[in-house]
Specification:
Blueprint lengths: L1 E3 L6 H9 L7 E6 L5 E7 L2 H6 L9 H13 L2 E6 L3 H15 L15 E5 L7 E4 L8 E4 L5 H14 L7 H6 L5 H4 L13 H15 L3 H17 L3 H21 L9 E9 L2 E10 L2 E10 L6 H12 L8 E4 L6 H12 L4 E3 L4 H15 L8 H12 L7 E10 L2 E11 L2 E2 L5 E5 L8 H14 L7 E5 L2 H13 L7 E6 L9 E3 L14 H30 L11 H11 L2 H6 L2 H8 L3 H12 L9
Parallel strand pairs: 8-11, 11-12, 13-17, 17-18
Antiparallel strand pairs: 1-4, 2-3, 2-4, 5-6, 5-7, 8-9, 9-10, 13-14, 14-15, 14-16, 18-19
Helix pairs in contact: 5-10, 9-10, 14-17, 15-16, 20-21
Amino acid sequence: MEYTQPEKMRGVEAIKQALTHAPLNPGVYLMKDARGRVLYVGKAKRLKPRLTSYTRPISGPTWYSHKVAAMVGQVAAVEYVITSSEKEALLLENTLIKEHRPRYNADLRDDKSYPYFRLSLNHDYPRFALVRRPRLNDGAKYFGPFDSAGAARQTMRMLQRIFPLRRCSDRMVASRSRPCLDYEMGRCPAPCAGKISREEYRKLASDLEAFFAGQGQELARRLQERMEAAATAERFEEAAALRDRWQALTRTLERQQVDQAVDRDLDAAALHQAEDGLRLAHLRVRGGQLVASRVHDLSRAALAPEEVMAQALLMLYDQAAPPPLILVSHMPSDPSLVAEVLGERAGRRVELRRPRRGDKRGLLELALINAAQPRAAGPQGEAVLERLQQKLGLAGLPERMECLDISHLGGHLTVAGLVAFSQGRPDKARYRRYKVLEGEGGGDDYAAMAHVLARRLAGSDPAPDLLLLDGGKGQLNLALRALAQAPAGPRPALAALAKGQASGGPDRVYLPGRKNPAGLKPGDPALLLLMRLRDEAHRFAVSYHRLLRKKALTRSILEEVPGVGPKTRARLLKAFGSLAALKKASVEQIQQKVGLDGATAQRLRGFLAALDTPNPPK
């Protein structure tokens, strides 16, 4: 159910008005701003009292009260979902936070992709590789993530000396008959050439799983026994290989040992309260070995530490099963409920504990030290966005920005690339590509931009806070006309970024209603952010143009025409004999010979006409 306040009602008054409709049931509530974006998702045992708490003065740390007040001031609508129990509300809250990624919730995700180790267990000879993004339900096991790609690659080289599993693709394994260089260097047993049996190879993969599960000491003992047995049976070459693996594993275990007293699988999650908000450190210990460590910046969360811990624990173990014991610096507001949900995910009991003394307290202190470490110096993301808001005179923080760029070659095969930044970082899930045919403005930058802008504003994606155009006043005026003709709804702020007039001159930012450029000096972090956005849009559009040209040379370009499927392509080529003959045909001839409707024939003709490029792209 949703209640939207009158246009001028915002903040506390808006929440008070929504209270007249709020029930006393358990459920989840979503606070939205005037543009319909979700600011915050929360759960409640009783919705009405929980919403009432936002209308009273907030007592607490300065950073906490400041962020809650800032959030409440932006509220224009309150939406709530009634659930049958508090547990159901907790699960729904976690789902909605992952879906909407609200600004004022605890969010452990970011735009950076972290390295993972991947072991493909669904193959007869599992492949061990380093990947950036894990894929769910693909039959593989993932270990990580690692904060440093360099450290991950170094670890992989070390693991290959202990567990020499293949790195090559499944296709290469199926097609090769001779060992590659990895075999000669002792980094792969060459299953492609039949140098190892399936059972022996599987044993290597099982040993690697045992290592990541924290069973390193037991694995080292088994390797030593196999080494001694091979030496006794005078299989000296096999014994030497096992000796090398055993020595490498032993040295690794000595470096990774945390504390012999901490001999069980557990995690430590610690929150550090800095002046600007919270940071969370997450340590993973398996069999007395520290196997992973990561720090998350939660400075945007408008939550008490206990509520942050509850949301963070559900996100940390969204894909990976939690261990039997989790040490926490702040006990969640509903510890038994959180532990119950985590236990269901793990398929066993999960305990949350806040140790006061002993070895486990020492491990938690180690996590607190990691969380308290100062972050990298330099302008922070939100500070740059605030400066950009001030310099451009925007009504709100430009958290969601988009930039549009047109690319063509001599007026032919015109395409457009739209890139998006969230919180000052690329948000590749919102990147878009557009084809511009002759009748839609192909060959004319201004007409093409007008056409693509109209398509973007008429689409289902929410409007960004700032729409940046690659160009000057001409592109800006064109965008203003496109906004005036767009369907009713939220309108993005506009800006255009033009190259410097002289060689090496500073880029200039033009705004609607202003004759002169905005006062952004060279080297200003806000200007550099806009330049990054513009350069990324240019790269994305040019790469799409080159991709289409490459496809035209390597396979039928008809596959790129919207509305033309495999059967229609076959009929077209059968009717005209070749692509060259089809390109010379008129719309009427295409309709008569193939039986296409007028719109599809016109679209096909325009697309083929755009391919008449005199020179290949550089």
